């Protein structure tokens, strides 16, 4: 309101989700609370882990196309500039999705690990997501994995936050079995005809 001077202070943060909680100082008994979601720094995210293994995302031979006929994806690795891997997509009309599958190295050891840390960005109006696929075809996803604002984001994705996707195969035991995961899939569902996804780094981490 006109003439209403507001004062705020940061009083709590969540290290994993990087939420900043702000309380209105002038009414402590009934505070105004706003959540600002941002991204961690890469070094800051790694500092919260006990151990991590970097995935070789620049090895293009590990990436396998996974998209409908209306999608014309182009994958490039390594990429000049900031990214190690780049996905450029062009879509016709229809269900606009693309989720290329990355074959995990044998030393990735998802079983017994806590999750993934991803440093990536999405350019275009889309919803980036990260899938884990069991050998039987069951898929588990976090979406959106990070904002599609064209900026680089570092996000920590704990395995317990991945949810089964009904469009994939039914999971007989109803849970994510990390020892059955040989592929991860970083891609997007797009609202527009063209979108770009880039990766700097992905690591498997133990908390």
Mean pLDDT: 85
Total helical elements:
1
Query: Quick one: how many beta strands?
Result: 16
Percent in strands: over 45%
Element order: H for helix, E for strand: EEEHEEEEEEEEEEEEE
Low-pLDDT runs of 5+ residues are 1-38
Largest sheet: 7 strands, antiparallel
Helix and strand content put the structural class at mainly beta
Distance between the termini: 45 Å
Could you characterize what this model shows?
- With 207 residues, this protein is mainly beta.
- Helix content is 3%, strand content 46%.
- Strands 5, 8, 9, 11, 12, 14 and 15 form a seven-stranded antiparallel sheet that branches.
- The radius of gyration is 19 Å and the shape is globular.
- The model is unreliable at 1-38 (pLDDT under 50).
Short descriptors:
single chain; mainly beta; globular; 207 residues; 6-stranded antiparallel beta sheet; disordered N terminus
Layout of secondary structure:
Layout (H helix, E strand, L loop, with lengths): L7 E7 L4 E6 L8 E5 L4 H6 L3 E4 L8 E2 L6 E6 L8 E7 L5 E2 L2 E3 L11 E9 L2 E9 L4 E4 L10 E6 L4 E2 L16 E10 L3 E13 L1
Antiparallel strand pairs: 1-2, 2-3, 4-16, 5-9, 6-7, 7-16, 8-15, 9-15, 10-13, 10-16, 11-12, 11-15, 12-14
């Amino acid at each position: 309101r006109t003439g209403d001077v507001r004062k705020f202070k940061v009083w709590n943060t969540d290290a994993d989700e990087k939420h900043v909680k702000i309380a209105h100082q002038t009414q402590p008994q009934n505070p105004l609370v706003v959540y600002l979601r941002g991204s961690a720094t890469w070094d800051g995210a790694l500092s919260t882990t006990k151990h991590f293994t970097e995935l070789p995302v620049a090895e293009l031979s590990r990436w396998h196309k996974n998209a409908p006929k209306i999608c014309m994806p182009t994958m490039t690795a390594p990429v000049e500039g900031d990214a190690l891997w780049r996905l450029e997509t062009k879509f016709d009309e229809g269900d606009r999705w693309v989720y290329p599958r990355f074959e995990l190295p044998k030393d990735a050891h998802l079983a017994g690990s806590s999750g993934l840390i991803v440093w990536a960005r999405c350019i275009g109006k889309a919803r980036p997501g990260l899938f884990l696929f069991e050998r039987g075809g069951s898929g588990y996803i976090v979406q959106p994995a990070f904002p599609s604002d064209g900026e680089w984001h570092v996000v920590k994705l704990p395995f317990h936050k991945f949810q089964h996707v009904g469009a994939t195969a039914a999971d007989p035991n109803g849970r994510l079995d990390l020892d059955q995961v040989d592929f991860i899939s970083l891609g997007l569902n797009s609202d527009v005809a063209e979108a770009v996804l880039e990766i700097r780094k992905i690591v498997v981490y133990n908390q």
